[in-house]
Give the backbone structure.
Amino acid sequence: MNEISKERWDVDFSIRLGSLILKNPLLAASGTYGYGRELNNILKTDDFGGICTKSITPLARDGNEPPRIAELKMGMLNSIGLANVGVQAFIQDKIPFLQSLETNIIVNVAGFSIGDYIGVIQLLEDIEGIDGYEINISCPNVEGGLEFGSSSKSAAKLTKALRAETDRFLMVKLSPNITDISEIAIAVEGEGADSLSLINTLIGMGIEIDSEKPILKNVYGGYSGPAIKPVALAMVHKVFHSVKIPIVGIGGISSAEDVVQFMLAGATAVQLGTVNFLNPTALTEILEDLVAIAESKGIRNISDFKGRLKEWD
Amino acid sequence: MNEISKERWDVDFSIRLGSLILKNPLLAASGTYGYGRELNNILKTDDFGGICTKSITPLARDGNEPPRIAELKMGMLNSIGLANVGVQAFIQDKIPFLQSLETNIIVNVAGFSIGDYIGVIQLLEDIEGIDGYEINISCPNVEGGLEFGSSSKSAAKLTKALRAETDRFLMVKLSPNITDISEIAIAVEGEGADSLSLINTLIGMGIEIDSEKPILKNVYGGYSGPAIKPVALAMVHKVFHSVKIPIVGIGGISSAEDVVQFMLAGATAVQLGTVNFLNPTALTEILEDLVAIAESKGIRNISDFKGRLKEWD
Amino acid sequence: MRVLSNEKNALNIYSLTFESTSELLESLPGQFVNINVRGEDSPFFRRPFSIASATDDCIEIIFEVVGAGTWQLSTLHVGDSVDVIGPLGLGYDLDFTESKSLLIGGGVGLPPLMFLYYKMKNKGIEPQFLAGFKSVSYNFMPRNITNVHFSSDDGSLGSKGYVTDLLIETLFHEKVDHIYACGPEPMLSKVIEIAEENEIRCSVSIEKVFGCGTGICFGCIIENSLKRLTETGRKYSLACVEGTVFDAGDINL
Amino acid sequence: MRVLSNEKNALNIYSLTFESTSELLESLPGQFVNINVRGEDSPFFRRPFSIASATDDCIEIIFEVVGAGTWQLSTLHVGDSVDVIGPLGLGYDLDFTESKSLLIGGGVGLPPLMFLYYKMKNKGIEPQFLAGFKSVSYNFMPRNITNVHFSSDDGSLGSKGYVTDLLIETLFHEKVDHIYACGPEPMLSKVIEIAEENEIRCSVSIEKVFGCGTGICFGCIIENSLKRLTETGRKYSLACVEGTVFDAGDINL
Ligand SMILES: Cc1cc2nc3c(=O)[nH]c(=O)nc-3n(C[C@H](O)[C@H](O)[C@H](O)COP(=O)(O)OP(=O)(O)OC[C@H]3O[C@@H](n4cnc5c(N)ncnc54)[C@H](O)[C@@H]3O)c2cc1C
Ligand SMILES: Cc1cc2nc3c(=O)[nH]c(=O)nc-3n(C[C@H](O)[C@H](O)[C@H](O)COP(=O)(O)OP(=O)(O)OC[C@H]3O[C@@H](n4cnc5c(N)ncnc54)[C@H](O)[C@@H]3O)c2cc1C
Ligand SMILES: Cc1cc2nc3c(=O)[nH]c(=O)nc-3n(C[C@H](O)[C@H](O)[C@H](O)COP(=O)(O)O)c2cc1C
Ligand SMILES: Cc1cc2nc3c(=O)[nH]c(=O)nc-3n(C[C@H](O)[C@H](O)[C@H](O)COP(=O)(O)O)c2cc1C
Ligand code: FES
Ligand code: FES
């Protein structure tokens, strides 16, 4: 168990994310940290500034057929397909442990209709110990065929409906598979979201030439890991210059340098995703390295990095 | 000089791309092979199935200020900004050498208005030895602010205008920074394009944390190289199932395996881009390895790979 | 963790031992470690290997070079440091005191059974051990494992043919309560079939591509049997944390 | 190409020689090779290095370890194979027979000047050579280069101070027609300034990040001087193919 003793550091890691105070700017990304308990014997889950749970849907879902993960050179593809225990079992079996954690619990919510999202949130509203919701709008919208997150109209409509349901911290997670992410960001901000998290996975594909088959049964999958970081950084920077609400950066983060890059580009906090698979104690190492970077730059509040990107003269 | 003796191979490399016959399915990608002459002492430029020139605009352009290239872990960013000699100097200084090559010459055309594109093509129409045009629609459209390639309406309008100007082979190069690439592909096909090439670069960004500056003066750049291959493959596969005209696959190709993957996904031919920077004799090596793969699979016509992707049962 | 030895045991087969944490030393047969292989062509995911033995101060894995990751592992030198997490997975049900056990494995499916064998011997139990190899050149069975019957594809070691033929033969004249099996999928399917016919309890170790090995990526799924589907309402189990050892009746291979 | 030797010459400085193609053996001073460095943390782009010498059967480069790529190069062993392309770039104008030449360089800016020096000596010309180092520990100048005046930041080698101070001093009592300079940008700027004041022709070697080194990526640009802009209509030159040696009057550093 790698425990983190904040006392010996001269850097204040706490940040304000909308109405939340996080003890540090590192959250576990949805779908890459299970229900928060799995790694608790390797890493003190409490050490995260927050946990975004696996996406929760109204009913339990088995997800897509295998193979549904595959490795690439600098990243991976997944077509898990929102496998999860469903909101009822989540409340019964997963919430008690999450409640016991001294960190912010953000439940990631997904659905195939606005009613799905509302259904999940209504059941969760009565449960204590949930600090907020992250809305995964990269799920296929049954009506239009495309994702909720692929048009500003549908993204705004969904945000508006959910804002009416809850006073809790409401963060909308944007898809990068989009012509103009700022347009979606502005629409979602306009309907009262407290924060934006980005990016979800890029759509990708791999082919195995011996079998001449796609590496995923589902053909397409979500591309994550270090390879997508440059795309994520550009989108965070662009959205930062388009909205006022705080941004949580996601995409390929695996080192303290990466965290600082995202904060310089405008992120208030970040999420660790695929790196948790490769290095279950990444959080601890990143926090330690962040101290070194902050100290070398004479920075005492980690939030001072935010949006501090300099221009070329 | 690595010369390629086709005689010793049992594989027929020639392919039909619309009205063109290519001696092999490998083309040099625009902006990554200069004007065709630069590497001619290292690699016989003739050995390419075709050359897509640097993007040509009506007037000479110096391009963006430096730094305008930067390396990443599995790729690079560029913000060259369409630096080129302009169509007049192109005709005078560059065309004669290109005419001397025994390969297909495809002039890549770019502009900031429909008039720009028309202007370039009208001047080139009288020149012999040009086998076709590749239209780069990823340039900012002055009217709307966005790229021509970012809406099916503007892409279709541009294609229609250019189709009226030329009977030559007309290939439109699609941008991946788009919500639904199939929509653009269908629109462009509808206006008479002979072929589609995809993808151009993804928008990306890098930050250097010591200086706290973007690694490019221009902040954003085009992300290319192996890291973008999974995104390109998915788009080629998707477009293949949306249109009937042939597709030229581009994005991170650096080996014969990559070429086969793109062909399985539906590409008729492919382009080599960033790999030319790293390995100027990549073409030769890839052709040799392609023979080995084809032979191991008992394939005698390279075009048999096209779209042959198998499904999971 | 520090590499203590890395020796070629047989054709393409290496035995790698490394210094061990106290947690690792308490590992159970059937559990695995997950190794972050670094080097020129580093694979992206970690690489999982069954624990082949655990002594007071070291852990052993035995692996075959089949690709970039295992090749890289084969180049490790004594003293090199290697990023290992574990023990992971549930391991074998060690409730075997009453019953007569038979271990059956092929190739690099044998290491977890070797560990199980050592544990059984420690408890004074001597299981039957059937081991199959492609040929004698691949044989890496250590001398301290006795009572093994070998088979090989070409007859160069033990009886010629499949190790499952040996199983059928053994079951003719021996009573077995519990079969523990690990190896390539076709072998496992055959073992399960034979066990079912003979109504013998059968535990199998499953190999899948692992994204994490720790239960957080939901990638390493194996289909549940109708029985387990009915019990749990779930179509799949996670091989890494709900296995990698499963009761043959719980899964569809 | 096969590595023939790789020796540490000074603090963090290595001299690497490799077998050479006939093309490489004809390379000119000021030309460079571009190396595809492979290994655990391989950089994406090739790494450019000036040719420090070319004998009948090998090419030499001298490099300082400053990052992952050069670190990886420092680990190469005799017999390893290395992916080198070249010679690239235009090299120095070798039309120096008539004039009195002075070579001035700092640190790993010196290798191309060493090659130039050898060429001049072969033609019976003995140039002035001014060489600056951080301190004596970094000095990698081979013995066969005579007539060098050294400077070092700390005075541990030659005169204390900048090599440009040496230049000013030299120009007090010597007539020079042509200065060849290579080194860090601040040094080059100062050399150009001094050359201009004294109306001496000055050729400088430029370092930029190279995407290709072969003129096809259009990334390695250097701003043209007003004079060259007027002549060519172009704002930039490509350092890799139109240089890396430029006439000081042609560019804005
Ligand atoms: C729980 C578990 C225990 C294992 N124990 C052992 C062991 O004790 N000894 C041993 O030699 N091998 C063992 N394996 C298999 C071992 O993990 C793979 O051989 C190894 O990951 C291949 O890595 P590579 O990079 O060398 O090969 P790759 O180039 O990745 O692949 C080579 C071949 O191995 C297959 N493969 C790749 N990754 C995996 C994976 N994660 N699981 C299964 N197959 C894979 C590929 O499909 C391919 O056919 C075990 C696997 C699992 C899941
Ligand atoms: C034409 C030319 C000739 C050169 N000749 C020599 C030589 O003879 N000996 C020698 O030691 N070095 C020489 N260099 C510099 C050498 O190319 C860099 O030191 C090397 O590329 C650094 O690689 P790295 O991966 O070790 O460092 P990195 O980790 O890439 O960078 C370390 C530092 O070097 C700088 N750098 C990185 N790449 C380049 C580049 N392509 N050009 C300039 N600076 C860079 C970075 O900005 C950083 O400050 C030359 C450069 C050029 C362009
Ligand atoms: C296996 C896997 C499962 C994921 N599941 C979800 C999910 O259920 N909901 C969600 O919003 N994002 C999900 N994601 C996306 C991640 O939260 C994250 O946005 C993405 O992986 C990019 O970050 P990374 O590169 O750091 O992994 C998943 C990602 C992976 C790799
Ligand atoms: C330095 C550089 C310059 C480029 N210039 C152009 C260009 O002028 N016109 C164009 O259509 N594409 C241009 N491209 C895009 C490439 O043609 C290609 O679409 C892209 O790089 C993806 O392929 P790759 O990953 O194989 O490089 C350029 C790419 C690079 C890296
Ligand atoms: S390997 Fe990730 S859940 Fe099993
Ligand atoms: S480095 Fe590519 S053009 Fe000079």
Remarks:
- The first strand of chain A starts at residue 15 and ends at 17.
